[in-house]
Every structure is written in structure tokens, then in C-alpha cells.
Design brief:
Chain lengths: ~290, ~400
């Protein structure tokens, strides 16, 4: 098994006719994901390499039974597109778009709380259940099917982590980028709970960074609710306070959001924290030895 | 983007949030002209820099007449201002705010910010205005009133009442407080603000509420919707290399170390900086070239790193996903051709088209060191730069 996506996933791509949308939709299909539809207002009736394009998400869902949306819509239009997908009954929306205005996202997240729609991201590389489905922009080839769940606020840093895991022979159940924005639809805790409940997942790697208090909340959750082993990493020990480090959400403000405070919190929650990224794979092999079947 | 106080007060005026009469001035004669127009004394002269703590640093002065104003304006404009937030270099003052000085009976604190932890818009208020609010929050947490606003519901009359009673305002002021807060909340929403803060919010002896200071930080992602605010961006307040990077679509932050680094992705870039430090080096910068970098962007990134005279060595760490390693190699080769690279260069390439990228670099004849993995790459560059200094 895996979490959130598998071979039942029927993917709709919002913004399919754009350069990034079409490239990644076809990459997902090549990996084995069922890409059933695209939506671009005004381009209904067209096709992108055999994938039908619709004007609205409602039409696309009615015609194709799509149950997951991957979103490549420009930042100022993205909130509207997420809401459209939720209203059309899509249970999972994965938003790749970066630079969505923060206040838009607050309204979207509050609205989604009253629906059955889960948002992953925004500013996320997406997620992948190796060997089953890829809904995102990560390079599929570095992944290996297996039992380790990976959760991260970053993109390429996650690829580095996965690359090391695969190099150690540690396969992955699902790898999720929850996104680098200050507010994201799906949190570390949502993913940890899903991995804890997933019989195939045997251990979890949590990749955090400076800013906010998501790592602190995750640490408390692990201490109280999780029996599976968790390895942690936090980027940004050398980040200067008050500066936004690339991601909109990565900023040290006050004492609580620094990397060292997060590492301390994770360790207090019983999580083994790797301080040297180059040695993360080795530490995972040590911690997860015996957990991997 | 942070606004200067005079810009924030201009925005306040547009929403009828009361502020003292005043105007900006770039030199002494402009300051005197503002004073003449205002026609009242005493006045306040306030240095316009994008950092707090100006009062303690001597950047805020009360003047009683023209001679005093001329002297204060000249003094503030002549030397960099040092405050707890400016760093050791201080900040050069290009602009002053000259405004009327008001009598104050009480000073309050009031702020609105999107709170990422709760997913609500948080209004914070305190009876202890005019002081460092973080110190108040630490020392007397009960003094800081927090009211969470549901993003779908917005500000309601009961929120205003809760705050007015919490601040112990006389009932005669409740109406004007609610009016001010309603306008401020509207300003916050309509301008995509990351922070709106009034510290202090004064109550005058005549019972008027006036924002003596104004701090506004805008969400950069919302700025494309507000071209009228984008023109307020103060290019002089930004490090020239950081400005060049922003224009090229790169995320660059200058730091104090001597090992330059170019990385794709913000998380990996931060982790690479941390590794440099752990290997005994000091990062000279943060540079995330992003997922969709072009050959031209890579070249510009290298040019910016090389323009920093402190840089004694460079580490390039790329995990190709969206960004293909062969494209990265092309950018590096072009940078080497167009800008002389006089410092050692260590490169670590992995992911999409890594083999092709390594081949291009090997055939280019460039003098560089290729590392197999991350630990090796950071250890090499740190050792080389250390050896070079010894």
C-alpha cells in the first residue's frame, strides 16, 4: 500500500496546455500514472498527446471520473482553480504553483476544512508512490518501491534524501513534498498519521527547515501517537534571522523557528535527527534495519 | 516588501486611518519646506530606514524651531544609522519624515498578521504601546490580547468590542476604535499585507486615536496585484547583488563567509550552506537558482557570486530534476568564458542527465574539481579555502 495515491489514481491536470503542465503530465503518464484529463478554460475539445482537454473541472470529472488534480495554474489564478476542483468533488488536489498570495491561501484552506478535499502544497513538488503512481515533478528514476515514508517541505532536498535511501537499498512507500509556503494544505502531522496507519510503511523520514512551528508540532505528534521509527533532518542552521530563504515559509523570526530549536524539539520527541546531510542514508540504514522487510 | 514609515502612513491616509500631519523630505531644504507648510511647532524628524529601533539609535528627534530642524535633518542624513536591527554596517538614511508632534495621553499597540500556526488573521493589541512588543509578550503574556479572525468571516463588531474592553478603553472611544480597526483590517486585506502594525497607537488628551508610527510589510506574492505599491520599492535599501539576482529570477542572499555556493532548490541550498559550515568553512551566500533555471540564469548566478570580493572558492551542488545537469554545465562553461574564474571551483552533479553534464565539463578544459557525493564536495571546498588562506 501507499498513502494518498496508488494505481487507482485517475489524474486530472489543471493547466495541462501550458509548457510545464504538458511536460509533467506526460512524465507522470510515462511513470505509469493514469492521466485521464486536462482543464484549461477556453481550450476544451483539444487534446495533449491523446489526453482530452475540458473547459471546466466539472465537465472533466463527469466525463473521466478523475479523482485527483495536479495543478500548474499561474499564482494569481491558482486559489480559484483549487476551489473549482474542490467544488467539483475532487478529493485530492496537488498544487505545484509557487508564489500564490498568502491571504488567498488562508481563505482556501479555511474553506477546504468544510469539504472532503485534501490539498497538498502549494509550492510542492507533489508526491510519488514508487512503482504505482507519480503526481508531481520529481525525477521518477531515483525512487525504489519499499517501506519508508518521506515527508518534506522542500523539493530538491527531498530528491537528495530519496537518492541516498535508494542507494542504501531502502525503498519508499510514498514520498510527499508538503510545500515550502507559510501555510500548506496538508501538514507533517496529516502525513505522519497516514504513514502510521499504512501497513506497508515501516519507518518515516521527516525533512524540515526553518520557519513556523510545523516541526515542533510533528515532534509532539510522534512522541504521543507514533510507534514507527522516525528519522529527522532540518535545513537552515546557518540561515540569518529575518531573511526569507527562497521558500516563502522559510524565515527565522523570534526564537522558536530556528533550525537548532527544531532539532531540539524533534529529539525531545524521540526522533533521531541527522545533522550531516551527507550521512543521512547511513543513519536511516542503521535506524530502519530490521524494520525493512 | 517592507514599506517605509512615510509610505505606510500614506497608505493609512488612503483608508482614513488617522496619522499626524507630515511629509517626506530628502534634504534639509525639503525638510524646511515641509515645516513651513505644516506651520506648527514642535515637529518630529524621523529617519526612514527599513529597520526598527530608530529612536534609540538617534534617528528620531523632536525639534522646536527651524534651526533645530535644519540641524537634526543634516545630522541624520550625514551618517549611517546604527540600531539593533541594522547590523554592524548601519543603514544610510536617504529620506526623512517631518511631521507634527502630538500630545499623548496613552500609548497602545495594535497589529494584524496572517498567523500560519492557526490559519487565521490574528489581531494583537496591548495597553503597553511604544515599547518592544516581543519583550512585552515574553515578560507579561497576559498584556498581549490576541483575537483570531476567521478568513471566511472577516472582522465582526464583537471582535472590536472584545479588543476595546480588553484594552480598557473608555466607552466614549469604542466607536472610533471600531471604525479605525475596521479600516485597518480592510487595508490589510485589500493590499495583501503580511503585517500591519501601529506602535504606538496614541490617544491624545482630546480623545483622538492617532497612529504615531506605521509599519506595513507586503506579501511579495500579492504584489503583482498592486502595481501602485510596487513603485514604492526602495532599490537603494537592497544589496546591489541581491537586486541583480532578483531581476534575474534568482534567490540570492549575501552572507559574511568566503565560500560561494550555487544550488538548485531552497531546501538543498540551505542544507549545503549548513554542510559548508560543518566542514569548517563559512558560506558567502545563499543562492537558489530554482527548478526552471536557464543557461543565462546559471551564468548570471556565477557572475553574482564572483562579484563578491570575499569569495575564495565556489561549490556548485546540483540535484537535477527539472533543471538538467547538462544545461547547468553549459551555463558554467559560459560563465567561465565570459567572466574570469580565479577561485577554485568544486562541482557535485547528480540526477537528470548528470553523466552528460560531467562529460561536458570534462571536455571544456575548465580547471575544476568534481566530487562524487555531498560530503566529499563540502569537505574538499572547505579544505581548499582553508589551505589558501593559511
Amino acid at each position: 500500500m501507499s498513502i494518498f495515491i496508488d494505481h487507482h489514481t485517475r489524474l486530472l491536470v489543471q493547466g495541462l496546455t501550458g509548457r510545464e503542465g504538458s511536460f509533467h503530465a506526460l512524465q507522470c503518464r510515462e511513470y505509469g500514472t493514469k492521466v485521464v484529463a486536462g482543464v484549461t478554460p477556453g481550450k476544451g475539445g483539444q487534446e495533449v498527446d491523446g489526453v482530452p482537454v475540458f473547459n471546466t473541472v466539472h465537465e472533466a470529472v463527469a466525463a473521466t471520473q478523475a479523482n485527483c488534480s495536479l495543478l500548474f495554474v499561474p499564482p494569481l489564478l491558482a486559489a480559484d482553480a483549487i476551489l473549482e476542483a474542490a467544488e467539483a468533488g475532487i478529493p485530492l488536489v496537488v498544487a505545484i504553483t509557487e508564489h500564490i498570495p498568502v491571504l488567498d491561501l488562508f481563505r482556501v484552506k479555511r474553506y477546504l476544512a468544510g469539504t472532503h478535499c485534501r490539498l497538498i502544497g502549494p509550492n510542492s513538488p507533489g508526491l510519488i508512490s514508487p512503482g504505482r503512481a507519480k503526481v508531481g515533478i520529481m525525477p521518477g528514476g531515483i525512487h525504489l518501491p519499499g517501506g519508508i515514508g518521506v515527508i518534506s517541505r522542500s523539493g530538491t532536498l527531498t530528491y537528495e534524501v530519496v537518492y541516498q535511501l535508494t542507494g542504501m537499498g531502502l525503498g519508499q512507500s510514498t514520498c510527499i513534498g508538503i510545500g515550502g509556503d507559510p501555510l500548506v494544505g496538508t501538514t507533517f502531522i496529516d502525513c505522519l498519521a497516514a504513514f502510521e496507519a499504512d501497513p506497508e510503511t515501516t519507518g518515516v523520514v521527516l525533512v524540515g527547515e526553518i520557519g513556523g512551528n510545523a516541526e515542533e508540532e510533528a515532534a509532539a505528534f510522534v512522541a504521543e501517537k507514533m510507534r514507527k521509527p522516525v528519522v529527522g533532518f532540518v535545513a537552515g542552521l546557518t540561515a540569518p534571522p529575518g531573511r526569507r530563504m527562497g521558500h516563502a515559509g522559510a524565515i527565522v523570526s523570534g526564537a522558536g523557528s530556528s533550525a537548532s530549536a527544531k532539532i531540539a524539539a524533534l529529539e525531545e520527541g524521540g526522533i533521531r535527527v541527522c545533522r550531516d546531510l551527507g550521512g543521512l542514508g547511513r543513519m536511516c540504514r542503521e535506524v530502519f534495519a530490521g524494520e525493512q522487510r | 516588501m517592507k514599506l517605509h514609515e512615510y509610505q505606510a502612513k500614506e497608505l493609512f491616509r488612503r483608508y482614513a486611518v488617522p496619522v499626524p500631519e507630515g511629509a517626506p523630505a530628502a534634504d534639509v531644504s525639503q525638510a524646511l519646506a515641509v515645516a513651513q507648510r505644516l506651520g506648527v511647532w514642535p515637529l518630529m524628524v524621523k529617519a526612514q530606514i527599513l529597520a526598527g529601533g530608530r529612536g534609540k539609535g538617534g534617528g528620531v528627534r523632536r525639534v522646536a524651531d527651524e534651526a533645530g530642524l535644519a540641524e537634526a535633518a543634516a545630522a541624520i542624513l550625514s551618517a549611517p544609522l546604527f540600531t539593533a536591527q541594522t547590523g554592524v554596517a548601519g543603514q544610510v538614511v536617504h529620506q526623512l519624515l517631518v511631521e507634527q508632534q502630538l500630545e499623548v495621553a496613552r500609548e497602545l499597540y495594535l497589529a494584524i498578521t496572517p498567523d500560519r500556526a492557526s490559519g487565521t488573521f490574528l489581531i494583537m493589541a496591548s495597553q503597553s504601546g511604544g515599547v518592544d512588543i516581543e519583550a512585552v509578550a515574553r515578560a507579561m503574556p497576559d498584556q498581549l490580547i490576541r483575537v483570531a479572525i476567521d478568513p471566511l468571516l472577516g472582522l465582526q463588531p464583537f471582535h472590536c468590542r472584545n479588543l476595546a474592553f480588553g484594552l480598557n478603553l473608555p466607552v466614549t472611544l469604542h466607536h472610533s476604535f471600531a471604525e479605525l480597526l475596521t479600516r485597518l483590517f480592510q487595508l490589510f486585506l485589500e493590499n495583501d499585507c503580511a503585517l500591519v502594525e501601529i506602535n504606538p497607537l496614541a490617544i491624545t488628551p482630546a480623545g483622538q486615536l492617532v497612529a504615531l508610527d506605521a509599519k506595513v510589510e507586503l506579501d511579495d506574492a500579492g504584489l503583482p496585484r498592486h502595481p501602485e505599491l510596487e513603485v514604492w520599492r526602495d532599490a537603494a535599501a537592497i544589496d546591489p547583488l541581491e537586486l541583480a539576482a532578483t531581476r534575474a529570477g534568482l534567490n540570492y542572499i549575501k552572507l559574511d563567509g568566503n565560500i560561494g555556493n550555487l544550488v538548485n532548490g531552497a531546501g538543498l541550498a540551505m542544507a549545503t550552506m549548513d554542510l559548508i559550515k560543518q566542514a569548517g568553512g563559512e558560506p558567502a551566500n545563499f543562492l537558489d537558482v530554482g527548478g526552471g533555471a536557464s543557461v543565462a540564469m546559471i551564468e548570471e548566478g556565477m557572475r553574482i557570486i564572483l562579484a563578491d570580493p570575499q569569495v575564495k572558492g565556489i561549490l556548485v551542488n546540483i540535484f537535477g530534476g527539472l533543471l538538467r545537469c547538462d544545461l547547468l554545465a553549459e551555463g558554467l562553461i559560459r560563465a567561465a568564458r565570459n567572466h574570469t574564474i580565479t577561485v577554485p571551483l568544486v562541482i557535485r552533479l547528480e540526477g537528470t542527465n548528470a553523466g552528460e553534464g560531467r562529460r561536458l565539463l570534462a571536455e571544456s578544459g575548465l580547471n575544476l574539481i568534481t566530487a562524487g557525493d555531498l560530503s566529499e564536495a563540502t569537505a574538499r571546498i572547505a579544505a581548499i579555502v582553508r589551505g589558501g588562506e593559511a
